[in-house]
Amino acid sequence: MEIFSWPVRVYYEDTDSGGVVYYANYLRFMERARTEWLRHFGIEQDRVRERDGVLFAVTHVDMAYLKPARFNDSLDVSVELVAQGRASMSFDQQVVRRDDGCTTLCRGRIKIACLDAQSLRPRPIPEYIQTEISREH
User: What is the CATH number of the domain that holds 112?
Assistant: First the structure.
């Protein structure tokens, strides 16, 4: 399976009072990378909601924080689809620092559910999305 990567620069606003990236911001970086991963397939989440009446929501996160990122670091955030169900997807994601030879800073396993936009109940992932995603695997 191909691993998608998205570059991120650490801004001052991403850091805490100790000058390191605040732990919750790694989740934001990973969310942005998953959004760009979908765009890589030509899938825009606002259009999916309008067209199909579905949205994607995080249902489970397992994170390991290994080393800190600091202001102005250049990072890469990877996205690897590791499991795909009828109404869910699981991803392995890593945040690595490019400046020093790709040191792994954070790893996560994130599970996403496809939900009906009105009822917020699970719904199958639209077939065209499954087809696009499967095309690369």
Answer: 3.10.129.10
Distance of CA 77 to the CA centre of its chain: 8
Instruction: State the Cα torsion 12-15-21-24 to the nearest 10°.
Output: -120
Domain containing 129 equals 4-135
pTM for the model? 0.93
Please report which helix (H) or strand (E) contains residue 33, including its range.
Answer: helix 23-40
Per the DSSP assignment, residues forming a β-bridge with 15 are: 21
Residues 71-100 have pLDDT tens digits of 999 999 999 999 999 999 999 999 999 988
Nearest-angstrom CA–CA distance, 40 and 44 = 9
Structure-token pair, residue 69: 């990122």
Provide the annotated active-site residues: 16
Domains in the chain, number: 1
